[in-house]
Specification:
It catalyses: meso-2,6-diaminopimelate + H(+) = L-lysine + CO2. The chain is α/β, with parallel strands linked by helices. The chain has 2 domains: 161 residues, Lyase, Ornithine Decarboxylase, Chain A, domain 1, CATH 2.40.37; 257 residues, Alanine racemase (TIM Barrel, Alpha-Beta Barrel), CATH 3.20.20.10. The protein has 12 helices and 21 strands. Helix 4 links the parallel strand 6 and strand 7. The structure holds pyridoxal-5'-phosphate and lysine.
C-alpha cells in the first residue's frame, strides 16, 4: 500500500541531478539511461561538479574566517586513481590509511607532501613506504607506533612531521560501528587517563619526530555540532596543559571529518561547510580564551565530499510478491557494491531513472542478487510500476560504497564513471570474470 502523501522523487536535487527533456534522470548533463546502456549496471556515477562545489564551499569558510587551514579528503570514502587526480587538481590534500591507498595516490601522481597517513596499526612496511615516498604528515596513533616510527626514521636517516591522534572521550550520536571518539576505542591516545600527555612528552624527547599538533576524529555521519564542540573544548584544554608544561604551541589542530549527509528524505543535515563554520568559530573563541596562538585548522571530510555526488544505477530483474507481507524487487547488484545497509542498517531511497517524476503506485523492498537473506538494499520503497530491465537509481552511494565493495559470490565489482558538463568518463572499469581468477593458482598435484 502506498503511504498517503508519499513523495515523488523530484525532491532529489543533489548537485546537477535533473529530470531531462526525455523525462529521465540526468547527472552532469548526461542521461543516466544512456550511461546504463553504454557502461552496463550496476554502475557508480559521480557528479564531479558537486565534489568541486563542496571543496570550494569548505575553502570559502576558512577564507572568510581568516584562519590558516588544510582540507584533506579522507580517501577511504572512495579511492581510485582518477579520484586522487581530481582532488589534486582542486588543490587540496588527502588522507590515506593503508599502503594500498598510498600506492594508488602515488600512481595518480598525487603530491606526497599533501598526504596525511592515518591508521591504528600501520605496518613497518607501510611506514617505510610512506617515509620513502615523502608523505607530508603521519598521524601517530599509539605508543608502539612512536617507537616503530622513530626506529624506521633512524634507519632511513630522516625526520617526519607528525600529529598525535587523541581520543577525547566524546560519544558522538551515530551508529556505534562508526563512532571513534569515545573512551573505549581502538583509535588514538586516551585523553582522560593521561595517555595523551604521556605521548606528547615521549615525542618531545625524540629529535626525528617533529610534532605539528593534534588530531581527533569523533566519528562519521554526525548531524549535530555539539559533539565537535565538546571535542574542540577537550583539545584546547589539552593544548593549554601542554603549553603550560613546555611552552609548546601547536601549529595544527586536525578535527577530522564526520559531517553528516542526506541519505533519505528523513535526513536533515547542515550543509557540510556549516559544520566547519561553527567549529572554526568555536575553536577561535576557545583558543583566545586560553591565550593560546591559533593553530591552522585541518579537516578530513570523506563522506560529505563524495556521498551525495554518487548515484548507483541498477537494472531491475525478478520480483517476489508476498501479499500482506512484502514485495521483493531484485536488482543486479546488492551487498557486494553496497554493504552499508547490512553493516550499519543504513537507509537509502530509490527511484526509477527512466521516470523520476512518476507517481508511486507500489511499495517494494529492494534486494540484491547475493546469496544472503540480509542482502537488502532498501526497505519500503514507493515506486511506480516497474518492469524487468528498468533502471533503478539509488542516490548518495558515493562514499563507502565502491570503497567497501567485494567479490562475494564471485560477482565482479561495478564500473565507475565521472560525469560533468555533458561528458562521461569511465574511471574504473567493470571487473571481468578473468579479473576474478587472475590471482588464483591451479591445484598442485600433491594435494
Ligand atoms: C581519521 C578519520 N578521518 C576522517 C574520516 C572521514 O570521515 P567522514 O567520511 O565521515 O567524513 C574518517 C572516517 O570515519 C577517519 O577515521
Ligand atoms: N565505512 C563507514 C564509515 C567509517 C569511516 C571510517 N572511519 C560508513 O560507511 O559509514
Amino acid at each position: 500500500m502506498l503511504k498517503k502523501g508519499a513523495k515523488k522523487m523530484s525532491y532529489y536535487h543533489y548537485g546537477t541531478m535533473v529530470t531531462n527533456a526525455a523525462g529521465h534522470l540526468a547527472i552532469g548533463g548526461v542521461d543516466t539511461l544512456d550511461l546504463a546502456k553504454e557502461y552496463g549496471t550496476p554502475l557508480f556515477v559521480y557528479d564531479t561538479a558537486l565534489i568541486k562545489q563542496r571543496i570550494q564551499a569548505f575553502k570559502e569558510v576558512f577564507e572568510a574566517a581568516h584562519v590558516a587551514y588544510k582540507i584533506t579528503y579522507a580517501s577511504k570514502a572512495f579511492a581510485a586513481v582518477a579520484m586522487y587526480q581530481l582532488i589534486a587538481k582542486a588543490g587540496i590534500g588527502c588522507d590515506i590509511v593503508s599502503g594500498g591507498e598510498l600506492y594508488t595516490a602515488q600512481q595518480a601522481g598525487f603530491p606526497m607532501a599533501e598526504v596525511t597517513f592515518h591508521g591504528n596499526n600501520k605496518t613497518a612496511a607501510e611506514i617505510e613506504q610512506a617515509i620513502a615516498a615523502g608523505v607530508g604528515t603521519i598521524v601517530v596513533d599509539n605508543f608502539s607506533e612512536i617507537e616503530l616510527l622513530d626506529d624506521l626514521l633512524a634507519k632511513a636517516n630522516k625526520t617526519a612531521a607528525i600529529l598525535l591522534r587523541i581520543s577525547p572521550g566524546i560519544s558522538a550520536h551515530t551508529h556505534e560501528y562508526i563512532m571513534t571518539g569515545q573512551e573505549d576505542s581502538k583509535f588514538g591516545f586516551d585523553l582522560k587517563s593521561g595517555q595523551a600527555t604521556q605521548a606528547f612528552l615521549e615525542v618531545e624527547k625524540r629529535d626525528r619526530l617533529h610534532l605539528l599538533g593534534i588530531h581527533c576524529h569523533i566519528g562519521s555521519q554526525i548531524f549535530e555540532t555539539n559533539g565537535f564542540e565538546m571535542a574542540a573544548e577537550a583539545l584546547v584544554q589539552l593544548l593549554a596543559q601542554w603549553h603550560q608544561k613546555t611552552g609548546f604551541d601547536a601549529q595544527v589542530m586536525n578535527l577530522g571529518g564526520g559531517f553528516g549527509v542526506r541519505y533519505t528524505a528523513d535526513d536533515q543535515p547542515l550543509a557540510p561547510q556549516d559544520y566547519v563554520k561553527d567549529i572554526v568559530a568555536d575553536v577561535q573563541g576557545k583558543m583566545a580564551e586560553q591565550g593560546l596562538k591559533m593553530p591552522a585548522i585541518w579537516i578530513e571530510p570523506g563522506r560529505s565530499m563524495v556521498a551525495e555526488a554518487g548515484t548507483t544505477l541498477y537494472t531491475i530483474g525478478t520480483r517476489k510478491d508476498l501479499p500482506g507481507i512484502r514485495n521483493y524487487l531484485a536488482v543486479d547488484g546488492g551487498m557486494g557494491d553496497n554493504i552499508r545497509p547490512a553493516l550499519y542498517q543504513a537507509k537509502y531511497d530509490t527511484f526509477l531513472a527512466g521516470q523520476p517524476e512518476a507517481e508511486p503506485t507500489q511499495k517494494v523492498t529492494v534486494v540484491g542478487k547475493y546469496c544472503e537473506s540480509g542482502d537488502i538494499l532498501a526497505y519500503d520503497q514507493q515506486l511506480p510500476a516497474t518492469q524487468p530491465g528498468d533502471i533503478l537509481a539509488m542516490p548518495t552511494t558515493g562514499a563507502y560504497g565502491y570503497a567497501m565493495a567485494s567479490n562475494y559470490n564471485r560477482n565482479p565489482r561495478p564500473a565507475v564513471v565521472f560525469v560533468e558538463n555533458g561528458h562521461a568518463a569511465l574511471v574504473v572499469k567493470r571487473e571481468s570474470y578473468a579479473n576474478l581468477v587472475q590471482l588464483d593458482q591451479t591445484l598442485p598435484e600433491n594435494f
